[in-house]
Amino acid sequence: MSGARLIVNADDFGFTHDVNAGIAAAHREGILTATTIMANAPAFDDAVRLARENPSLDIGCHLVLVQGEGLPASIPELLIALARRRIDVYGELQRQVRKVVGAGIRPSHIDTHKHTHLAPPVLDAVIRISREFGIPWVRKPVDFPMRGSGTSITKRFVHAGVCLLGNRFEARLRAAGCRTTDYFTGFQVTGRLGTAEMQRLIRELPDGLTELMCHPGFLTDELRGASTRLKESRAIEYRALTSPTVRQALVERGARLVCYRDL
Length: 263
What we know:
Blueprint: E1 4-13, H1 17-29, E2 34-37, H2 44-53, E3 58-63, H3 75-83, H4 89-102, E4 109-112, H5 120-133, E5 137-138, H6 153-176, E6 183-185, H7 195-203, E7 208-214, H8 221-224, H9 232-241, H10 244-253, E8 256-257
Parallel strand pairs: 1-2, 1-7, 1-8, 2-3, 3-4, 4-5, 6-7
């Protein structure tokens, strides 16, 4: 199908109650079409409740191997654990997906916290999970280029490294029979995805299927006290996702909102 199609996916469903509420509201009131749930997060049960109350919200799995209970605290620590075979990646991810499925959710897509499935041992486990549970879509976390994005030097450096992995990563998914979107965006603007940035991103959407990763939420004392750098930015993203000017940008671009389970 020609033209631009856009999946707008919120990560971190289940992280806190106020993040959950913001995600659900961004779906009901804005352009958010999908989200990925964290099985080992404190507000998981609340996220399950909201998923039942919002049946049109497409749900996937946000698999966590860092910054969770009993897990490595950072990406470098995870990489060391992987190299020394000190972590049962498949067993941990399987437990998380079983918890999601056991709660009555049928996930349509998979992504990972901090994009850890870019690491080959994690990708192998994710592919195995995809086959075992019949979850067809796996995120391809390689941003399409944006003109004048104002991205930090650190983000540009990381993005360049991700791009080097991208072709091999996508080929591995294709060979395994996993589906991916044609394009992905959101990494380089994480933490600063306001209304103007979202409008510009939509104007630059290529033809084909794109996933936009976002992190909306409401900001209350719960989120303020949580261990995350994304706090005020979540409320900013919620306002962008529900902005009439952003919806108008979709109309002007001729982009159609879709979700994984309907493709």
